[in-house]
Design a protein that fits this description.
Helix content is 38%, strand content 18%. By secondary structure, the protein is an alpha/beta fold. It has 4 domains: 96 residues, OB fold (Dihydrolipoamide Acetyltransferase, E2P) (Beta Barrel), CATH 2.40.50; 60 residues, no CATH class; 198 residues, Rossmann fold, CATH 3.40.50.300; 158 residues, P-loop containing nucleotide triphosphate hydrolases (Rossmann fold), CATH 3.40.50. Strand 6 and strand 7 form a beta hairpin.
Length: 680
């Protein structure tokens, strides 16, 4: 029997080539494979009637094979095999491309279970490449696990690999204390892992999932509390209460009520004996930078330095310019520190930081390097917190003795979920937009209107404005049919339909300096249009950009679309967002139309979570926390609350998980957080 630490390539049926594909899923060892849980099951015990099978959904029907048609070659050199099955309610057309062996195994007159995505009409349903099972196979295994898969590694192959190592589940260490298993009537880990991969019935699958969801959320909460445990110590930057009035009166406009409230909450925290640990959430354009400036002003009046960490150099430079205008009239020196600086500039900046002349340091990851030494850092601010992991935030906080920490995010999260997700992080919300900001019109069109839309772009450019055009991915070979690839779209569509215009290209495979250069060109008005993937930086301010076009809008979560929409509408001119999608699914069209009529980011986030789930809402490690294997942060909030309570209770008795009986728990916390690239 293989060992848990053995490489996946030695599992029966895997080998070196498939091991590389497993690696894309984060599966390197036998243990990783056992902990790669099914995302759903095909329940063959409850098949649909053919006429009742839902359109454009994965489901199963039980039907008799009526006939098979001879294989024939079609356009593109592919071989098409067709067959027909039926039950008492209707006919089912079956087809396979370049897979005649699948049909060869079927016998006319026999009854089979066909599973897959159903199309066709009400009177004649159809399905391509169905999974086919005999009645004997269904009797032996009524529930079949469906796994998160990747290109070239389908769920079926993953399932076969799991079955080959399932006996190894008995050697998995169980991190949960026995008292919790007894208190919540949960099975041991080995039994739960067996039960989730190969359940005898729905009840066993549910019991296994319940245990593993609790385990995952319990370990998640322990990790969050441990990583933020500095909040239990006394701050090294005590501050006294001061009136923010002089700062507010220096502004040429009135702050919103939400900004005043959030700044009040932050400054109250700064005067407490424990370090502040607060999340400032604000919709696009709600004025988070001004609130951060108020906090920096407050810290400076108390004699402390501040640092603001931005995810990119261009955003750091923008922040530095904005904050200098707000703070330097008060004698607060704003110093920029980014990777692209010349050596002499860097030496000057480091000297100012070390001797305290730099009242505020604005920078990128460069601020985290060992050479950066603060004289008296009292406040650390992290902008766009989803771009930095908890450990990166900890490195910034480590530049002083328990400084105050403020993290900012433009990704709205419903408050109840945020309170659970961020554990002991206090939350301030900016739920008002500054007066004078014009609403952004949002339109949903199909690809048939693309040429007309480009005519509209030409008119905007004639008026001296700029446009963003966003595509979902970089290379064409990454995509399925109909999805726009940014490189091909740039040459074949944007440049062709915008002749004589200055069109830029931006995507994630460009080097950081190249990306910054393109974005700087666009910001300076040297480009009329920017064709990009979603690497367009959140927060970068281009007041002259008035149009945001999103191709294949159905491929993005509504919260992501809302963020993209917020890139425009930052100047005096009317702005709009145009969503393009040819997806015919009613639910998809309803989602996009919802965005056309809703400007409130929190409403958008709530709808997105309810309709798509947290995986799509947060994106790839977007929230700076590990990707969860089995838990659902929306559906499992009740379990999350219990896990949070139990985690708090345990850490009261063993604050660092140093006790021998908690060693396995500490190992699991380390493994879960080490798996998140955003945590490194």
């Amino acid at each position: 029997m293989p060992k848990l630490e053995d490489s996946i390539q030695y599992v029966k049926g895997v080998g070196p080539a498939f091991a590389k594909k497993f690696a894309k899923l984060g599966i390197f060892t036998v243990q990783d494979l056992l902990l790669h849980y099914p995302r759903r099951y095909i329940d063959y015990t409850r098949p649909y009637d053919i006429a009742a099978a839902p359109y454009d959904a994965d489901c199963c029907v039980r039907a008799q094979l009526l006939r098979k048609k001879p294989a024939r070659r079609i356009t593109g050199g592919r071989v098409l095999v067709q067959a027909e099955a039926a039950d008492d309610t209707g006919l089912l057309a079956l087809s396979w491309f370049n897979a005649s062996y699948a049909a060869d195994a079927l016998r006319v007159g026999e009854t089979y279970y066909f599973e897959g995505r159903f199309g066709g009409s009400m009177t004649r349903r159809e399905i391509s490449h169905p999974t086919v099972r005999t009645q004997a196979q269904v009797a032996a295994a009524p529930l079949v696990a469906v796994y998160p898969a990747t290109e070239g590694l389908p769920s079926g192959r993953i399932a076969r690999a799991v079955q080959a190592v399932l006996d190894c589940a008995d050697t998995l260490p169980d991190p949960l204390p026995p008292v919790l298993l007894e208190r919540y009537k949960m099975p041991p880990r080995a039994q739960a892992v067996r039960g989730i991969h190969a359940p005898a019935d729905a009840a066993e699958a549910a019991a296994a999932r319940r245990r593993l969801i609790f385990e995952e959320l319990y370990i998640l909460q322990l990790g969050i509390f441990l990583l933020r445990s500095h909040g239990r110590r006394l701050t090294g930057a005590p501050m006294r209460a001061l009136d923010l009035g002089p700062f507010w009166r220096s502004l040429p406009y009135r702050p919103t009520g939400a900004q005043l409230r959030a700044a009040g909450e932050i400054t109250a925290d700064l005067c407490r004996p424990a370090p502040m640990n607060r999340l400032l959430q604000g919709d696009v354009g709600s004025g988070k930078t001004l609130v951060a400036a108020a906090a920096v002003w407050f810290a400076a009046q108390n004699g402390w330095q501040s640092a603001i960490l931005a995810p990119t150099e261009i955003l750091a430079r923008q922040h530095a310019a904005t904050l200098a205008d707000l703070l330097e009239p008060f004698g607060i020196n704003v110093t920029l520190l980014v990777g692209g600086m010349k050596a002499a500039e860097r030496r000057i900046a480091l000297s100012a930081i070390a001797d305290g002349r730099a009242g505020l340091v604005v920078g990128t990851h460069a601020v985290l390097t060992e050479s950066v030494v603060f004289k008296n850092l009292g406040l650390a601010v992290v902008d766009e917190q989803h771009r930095f992991g908890v450990r990166q935030r900890g490195l910034l906080a480590g530049k002083a003795q328990s400084p105050h920490l403020l993290v900012m995010s433009a990704t709205p999260i419903p408050r109840t979920l945020g309170l659970l997700l961020y554990g002991d992080l206090d939350i301030s919300i900016l739920d008002e937009l500054p007066p004078g900001r014009k609403p952004i019109k949002t339109w949903f069109i199909t690809g048939h209107k693309r040429a007309d839309m480009y005519g509209y772009l030409q008119k905007q450019m004639d008026a001296g404005h700029q446009a963003y055009i966003v595509c979902p991915a970089i290379e064409e070979n990454e995509l399925d049919a109909g999805m726009q690839a940014v490189k091909k779209y740039y040459t074949d569509t944007a440049c062709r339909l915008l002749p004589g215009r200055r069109v830029g290209l931006l995507h994630g495979r460009l080097k950081p300096k190249e990306k910054d250069a393109v974005m700087a060109q666009f910001k300076a008005g040297e480009l009329d249009a920017l064709v990009s993937t979603t690497v367009i930086e959140v927060g970068v301010d281009v007041p002259n950009a008035t149009v945001m076009v999103v191709e294949n809008a159905e491929r993005f979560g509504l919260s992501a679309l809302h963020q993209l929409r917020g890139r425009v509408g930052r100047g005096a001119a009317d702005s709009c967002c145009i969503l393009i999608s040819d997806n015919p699914t009613p639910a998809v069209r309803e989602r996009l139309r919802f965005l056309c009529h809703t400007a409130d980011g929190f409403e958008v986030a709530k709808y997105d979570l309810e309709t798509r789930g947290p995986g799509d809402f947060f994106g790839q490690a977007q929230h700076g926390l590990p990707t969860l294997r089995v838990a659902d942060l929306v559906q499992d909030t009740r379990t999350l609350r219990v896990a949070q309570q139990e985690a708090r209770a345990l850490l009261k008795t063993d604050p660092e998980l140093r006790a021998d009986e908690h060693r396995l728990l500490a190992d699991e916390v380390e493994r879960l957080f080490a798996s998140a690239g955003a945590m490194n």
